[in-house]
Amino acid sequence: MVDPLQTWTRSEHTADVGGKPTTHPVWRKGSGPGVVVVHEIPGITPSVAGFGQELVDAGYTVVMPSLFGTDGASMTAGSTARAMRQVCVSREFTKLRTGETTPVAGWLRSLARELHEELGGPGVGALGMCFTGGFALAMMVDDSVVAPVLCQPSAPFAVSPGRSRDLNLSAADLDVVRGRCAAGQQVLGVRYLKDPAVGKRFETLTTELGDAFIRIELEGRGHSTVTEHRSQRAVDAVLEFFGARLSA
Question: What's the CA gap between 155 and 153, in Å, rounded?
């Protein structure tokens, strides 16, 4: 089997997570404005790498941090279960708590700042998916992130009505996001209409952000909008969003 990451360059990034220096691998490829792609469970699968390649082909410098899972491994029942166990014991992520920003958000903001400082321009894009979908919203607290994309945001796990509406953000961080949106920032959200994992988060986002929240809702029961259940409409919307906001 061909390694989906064989043409990507691996490095590492170290930043604070909950008061502790933390290092994660980062895969990079391309040239042009920067985009941080945060993988879904179970990790950087061939489909995630393939979406990253689509962004590279569209003219972006793409960095994909590896937060859990086995880089390059396919999505299987076994790889998903192993990643879930890793996520559930890690203090870097919130899983069920509401009204809190995931701890790894600070690490991701640091990565985005570093990329923006290197590449310049108006800022960088950030895209999260599934369990990490809301991470892009948390990254937007930093001014370096000017194009946040939330693909099927699914954390905290929607096991109750309150959790299904939660944005995985603290009240203070939500205030910053609201302020940036009031000043002209926009947020793109993409989901399948019948995906239960997203819960009522799109309704919360519309309530909190108003017209600044752009909703792309796809027919059907799919989940992974730009990877395993890839929708061309979703990919086109992401490319249009990045193109409008990342050009110098």
Answer: 6
* For the chain, domain boundaries: 9-246
pLDDT tens digits for range 11-60: 999 999 988 999 999 999 999 999 999 999 999 999 999 999 999 999 99
Q: Comparing C-alpha atoms, which of 149, 104, 40, 174 is closest to residue 166?
A: 174
CA 225 to chain centre: 12
pTM score? 0.96
**Segment 109-166, tens digit of pLDDT:** 999 999 999 999 999 999 999 999 999 999 999 999 999 999 999 999 998 999 999 9
CB 245 within 8 A of CB 149: no
Question: Phi then psi for 155, rounded to 5 degrees?
Answer: -130, 140
CATH for the stretch 9-246: 3.40.50.1820
Separation of alpha carbons 31 and 143, rounded Å: 21
Q: What secondary structure letter does DSSP report for 213?
A: E
